[in-house]
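Lab manual, section 2.4: Encoding a predicted structure.

Procedure: take the sequence of the chain (588 residues), apply the prediction step described in section 2.3, and record the output as structure tokens. A sample record is shown.
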Amino acid sequence: METESEPYVRLATLRQLHQVVADLNTARSLADTLQTVADGIVAGLGYELACVNLVRPDGDLVVAAFAGNTAAEALITGRVGSRASWERRLGMGEAWGELRFIPHTEGWVLLEDDVPQWYTEGPEPRFEDEWHPQDRLYAPMYASGGGRELLGVISVDKPRNGRRPGAWGQEALQMYASQSAIAISNARLRANMQRALVRLEREQQALRASEESFRQAFEYAPSGMAIAEMGGDQHGRLLRTNDALCRLLGRPASAMRRYSFSDLVHPEDIGTLLRTSAEGGRAELRLGRRDGTYLWVSLRNSVVADTADGPRFLLTHVEDIEERKRHELQLAHRASHDALTGLPNNAELRARLSARLCERPQSARQAIGPTLHTRDYQSPYGDGNGFGEYGDNGYGGNGFGDTGYGENGYPPGYEDGGEGKPRFRADGFDFDTPGSAYDHHVHAVAPALDGEADDGTKGLAVLFCDLDGFKSINDRFGHNTGDAVLIEVARRLTTGVRDGDTVARLGGDEFVVLADGLTAADAADLAVRLRNAIIPPIRVDGRAVRVGASFGIGWAVCGMSVEEVLQSADQRMYIEKRSRAKVHRRAG
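Recorded output:
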């Protein structure tokens, strides 16, 4: 039964609560609001300690405000409790409406979790509703709306009357928590609005500064700049050009506004321009000058978009690359040619050789492999046993040794295709018949070798050349003399081949000659001519030096890799080098 004085106590509490709520609405910032919440509980609701735990963006709760005890405030303010621990607490104990009360009989299980808390001391309760030092009372704060988003939790301790709050005290705390949630939400909205206003002002200042910077950068840029329309009937029409672009094309700004880039571009580059204009990006093309000449430029387009209407303008940067274009040919030549001799280098040789070869099916490789690049090679010079005696020019007869070719005079896997031309067949593939899987490619094949009658088959000969005695010249006379010898050898090799043949330097004193359309006899004759061209003395700095040369002849055959082709010719060259060394020893 309500006592006579209790309504007056409630009225006084309500007045205090009203004042506390009014103070919430006058806080200037979120931090002030949170502290006002904690202070209001101590001042208006009759608790000695109050703590406000605020939900962070990551979901954990941080102690954002504390009131009632400065030592406790210094100890736990700013500390964080995990969301899992808080959810465990809010699921325990007794539900008093929105409040959650955990009596000391259950609260002992929470002593070891990570939620920051202040432990109070006091005597054991003497009656049923007396407050125990380890009792816990929490008031969750939810955002307004149907989502019930948790904003934070108010925890209170040590009621001044020493008793657990009754129905009126519970209602007051719950109402205060609800008002605090509204105040916190409003404080956050105000803070967000203030930050947005500050950000907007900064963005406007930056935009004004950016516009001025763009104007100056556009007008005074050392390279050409233009703004053109994008879309519609006037697509590409120049709206604005800077002085650098006008000077570059020799046209005044007033005249430039009558043109679009499509009016100025070289006819062959119009497709490149249209692709670049439609997609943005970069292109290299030629623009016409007032005097009728064309200038190579690099065009970089950026789309200036409008959020409402979509792309509207093209910002184009025009750079003169005429000089670079001239240098590109020189650089391309340097990348693919030897710096000392000017001959194609190793990479260029492999590229040219690879362009002539295709990958036959494995069955085709097996058919030609034992004959062309896996057996022990016989020399194309001398008798059938390897090398014959050398004549006046250092070479023997034109006989060829046993190669494993069949009775028809063609390599294994080949047959007579008519008119004396071989045709290759393997596993149902006819590589030389129109309409077959490979009729788009003229296969490189090897002519009859080593003792077989020359059937007139022509192939792509690969002559591997290694200089004899070059190291001693380098060691005795120095690298300058050696370089001069290599340059002269390169000249003699180039002079000794046909137009269209390739003479390449692999490195050191190794050279390779690619000569297409040769029979076996043609290739042997070419090797002799080139060796004889190298043998004569080379005069360097008033002295005459001599080098010899060993040649190995291989054949580029489809189904072989570039590496296999070069290794084949290399092996033949070393066989010749060793054989010639034996001949010289016998002669000595």
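Check your result against the sample. The first strand starts at residue 47 and ends at 55.
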